[in-house]
Design goal:
By secondary structure, this protein is an alpha/beta fold. The chain contains ten helices and 13 strands. The strands form four sheets. Strands 5, 6, 7, 11, 12 and 13 form a six-stranded parallel sheet that branches. Strands 4-10-8 form a three-stranded parallel sheet. Strands 1-9 form a two-stranded antiparallel ribbon. Helix 3 packs parallel to helix 9. The longest helix has 23 residues.
Length: 264
């Protein structure tokens, strides 16, 4: 016969373990796993978030999620899987404020929107590699991983006539330690992010007020902002948001200087 006291004790222990595991996961106090879904815990406003992998685990692989925490610099990055008319006004706002940005593009974006990509480069922005067709890169072997990057970089070179800058962002922020190593060996800097908000759903765009508030809360020295250039809200507020950052004393960093300017 099973002892009820033992059962009760086991259940209590299991719940206690689950609670501790959840807490430690938020605070990044457990050992990293080989596959990571990039995540951030925003504990306090205007301070760096707590990531599920920290600098000591990322930087040796040439991977970064923030810049120098002692400089009032913000890095603007935009992910784009397709074009829906919102990139041109975003480029207009960036040009008005002389603010460099990095656009992480998939291969078909380059193929289908050559004039927009040319404009990005002509206006001083960096076009980064977001893979060819946005797969789960943790399911790829090394050859498949490199092929995803090469297909996109070849599309860029055929269009621009120059090698694509070696900056990589994992689709959906999902990667493995092997992915980071492979990218690093290929010369890429893996750029994650430290600030973002829910801007990617075309059918449920945030209000201007909500966007301004979330961005304000997640602004801090050295932040790498992830925004989506498909966002109608971003296209409408970016000019005003850039002004807000400038009024706060921020400058906009070029991702090509991230590593040189970096300070943990």
């Amino acid at each position: 016969m099973i002892n009820k006291k033992i059962i009760i004790k086991s259940v209590i222990t299991a719940f206690a373990f689950a609670a501790v595991f959840t807490l430690l996961t938020k605070r990044n106090e457990i050992l990293p796993v080989s596959i990571c879904q990039w995540g951030l815990f925003f504990e306090k406003e205007n301070t760096p978030p707590i990531p599920n992998l920290d600098d000591s685990e990322l930087n040796p692989y040439g991977a970064y999620y923030h810049g120098n925490l002692d400089k009032k610099t913000i890095y603007l990055t935009f992910d784009a899987g397709y074009e829906n008319g919102n990139t041109p006004p975003i480029l207009d706002a960036l040009k008005k404020h002389n603010a460099p940005a990095t656009f992480f593009l998939v291969g078909p974006f380059i193929e289908h929107n050559p004039e927009i990509v040319k404009r990005m480069v002509e206006e001083g922005h960096v076009v980064g590699n977001h893979t060819y067709d946005h797969p789960d890169m943790t399911t790829k072997n090394q050859q498949e991983f490199i092929e995803q990057l090469m297909k996109t970089s070849n599309r860029y070179k055929n269009l621009i006539g120059e090698e694509m800058p070696l900056f990589y962002r994992p689709p959906e922020g999902k990667f493995s330690t092997e992915n980071l190593e492979w990218a690093n060996r290929a010369g890429y800097t893996t750029v994650l992010w430290s600030s973002a908000y829910v801007d990617w759903n075309d059918n449920s765009q945030p209000s201007h007020e909500n966007a301004f508030e979330k961005i304000k809360q997640r602004t801090f020295d050295g932040a790498i902002f992830l925004l989506h250039s498909t966002s109608k809200t971003n296209a409408e507020i970016l000019d005003a948001q850039l002004t807000k950052w400038e009024e706060m004393g921020y400058t906009f960093g070029d991702i090509r200087n991230l590593v040189a300017d970096y300070g943990g």
